[in-house]
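REQUEST ID: PR-0412
SUBMITTED BY: lab tech R.K.
PRIORITY: routine
TASK: structure prediction, single protein chain
INPUT:
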Amino acid sequence: MPDLFKFKYYLTLNLSVKQHITRIASNCFYHLRRLRQIRRVDVGEDVTSQLISSFVLSRLDYCNSLSAGLPRTSVEPLRRVEIAAARLVINLGFRDHVTPVLKQLHWLPVEHRIKYKQCTLMHQIHTGRAPLYLAHSVQLIAESSRRPGLRSANIADYIIRRTRTKVADRCFSHAGPAAWNFLHDCIKLTTDSNRF
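STATUS: complete
OUTPUT:
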């Protein structure tokens, strides 16, 4: 029980997820070191890619929407993990350029993975497949009593709540609709999750 109180106290003082990101990065680097030993056995790229997807990328994607709106320096450890994973899959040297490899593997950069997760959650809200606590945190512009006759009421946009601080900009009720409203209308109106 005292550890729980320590965590709450730490969270209220700092309001940062730096320790969480550091822990994820260290766990991922541990698995990458283990997978490097398997890669030496001359396992193919497909097998290595599947192993990295299950052991490393799944950890990067788990709850990554908490990292929304963080400065680039805070997300940098996760970006380094992704680069190291791409180097391991293709068996690149330390000085080789990684961006073409990420495109070849069809891996989104970490910042875009976070946006993709937010948009996926918003898509689930829009299609009615999300939990109620998420659905109640956002509101369609069309459902707003203040904007009944506007043209924007016909579009599948959500109200972006006004905030006063950068920390409040990271909450889902602001960051989720901001990411969703940026999408093209034909993507927003897609009801099939696989096509989305």
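NOTES: Confidence is low (pLDDT under 50) at residues 6-12.
REVIEWED BY: pending
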